[in-house]
Amino acid sequence: MKLLDGKATSLDIQNEIKVNVEELISAGHKKPHLAAIIVGDNPASRAYVGHKIKACAHVGFDSTLIELSSNIEEEQLIDEVNQLNHNKEIDGFIVQLPLPDHIDEQKILQAILPEKDVDGFHPVNAGKLSLGLPSFLPATPAGIVELLDRYNVETSGKHAVVLGRSSIVGTPMTLLLSRNAKRGNCTVTICHSKTQNLSDITRQADIVIAAIGRPHFVTADMIKPGAIVIDVGINRIDDPSKKSGTRLTGDVDFEAVSKIAGAITPVPGGVGPMTIAMLLKNTLKASLLK
Description:
By secondary structure, this protein is α/β, with parallel strands linked by helices. It has helices at about 5-25, 45-60, 75-85, 105-110, 125-130, 140-150, 170-180, 200, 255, 270-290; strands spanning about 1-5, 35-40, 60-70, 90-95, 160-165, 185-190, 205-210, 230, 235-240, 245-250, 265.
C-alpha cells in the first residue's frame, strides 16, 4: 500500500510557487495578493483560513484576512465582496464556507467577480469547467488530480467512483476525471444518498473518491483490492485518548481500508493541504491575468 502524502506534495508545490513569485518580483511585478473573508467563529473555518494565510507567507504572497461577525446581514457581506472586487491590489479572494444559515451562500459566491474567484465556485468558472475551457478549477478536485499526477497514478480507462455530488467537490471531480486530459479519461460513476447497492458499485472501482462528510463510511468490504482511495472527508469525532477529547478523521475507515487499497490518502495530511496548494496556484494565475 502506498500512502499518497498530500502534506509533502503540497509543500513541493508551494516551493515551486515561491520560486515563481521570486522571479515575478525580480521582473518588476508586484507580489500576488490573496484575501479571505471569514464570517463568525467556526473553529474549523478559522483553522483552515489560518493555514491559508500561513501558506501565503511561505510562498511570498501578500494576504488580507477580513473577519466579520456571524450576525452580519447578507447585503453587508455583499458590500464587503464588492469592495474586494474593486480593489486593484487584490488578485483573488475567497469567502470561507460554511456561512451562517441566514445568508444565501450561492448569492454571495455569485457576487464574486469570476476573474477573482480563485476558489473556482462562480457559475462562470463552473460552466467553463463543464465545457473544457480554461478556468479557475475548484481547489479540492484540482488538488486531487494534481496528487494523482505527482504519484503517477494511471487514470486513463479506469473506473472511478465519486461518493458525493456537491458543487464544490463531487460534481467538478466527475468532470475533471472524465475529461480528455493526462489525468482524466476515466469512466466515472457518481453516487449519492439515493444510490442503491452502493457497495456493489464501489467494489468495481479502480479509484474511489469519498466526499460525503460521514466518518468511516467507506469500509474495507466496499473496496476492490488494489484500488486507489482518496478521502476528502474531514470529520471531528470523540477520542478520549487525545488531550482535546477529539480527533480528525475521514470518510474512510483508514485502518481497515489501507490494508487492501493500492494507495490511499490520510486524514489529516492528504487532500486538505493539496486544496491549499491549488488555491495558491489559482491566485498566482489570477495575478498573471492582469
